[in-house]
Design a protein that fits this description.
By secondary structure, the chain is an all-alpha fold. It is 71% helix and 0% strand. It is built from one helix and no strands.
């Protein structure tokens, strides 16, 4: 396992976390 193996999952996890936050706090942090 190398850095390349974690590069994709980390990017996907970041995007997923952003999506979850945006969907969970649209009225609180959206504005």
């Amino acid at each position: 396992l190398g850095m390349g193996t974690f590069a994709r999952p980390m990017a996907v996890a970041r995007d997923a976390a952003r999506g979850l936050l945006a969907a969970a706090l649209p009225a609180e942090a959206g504005r």
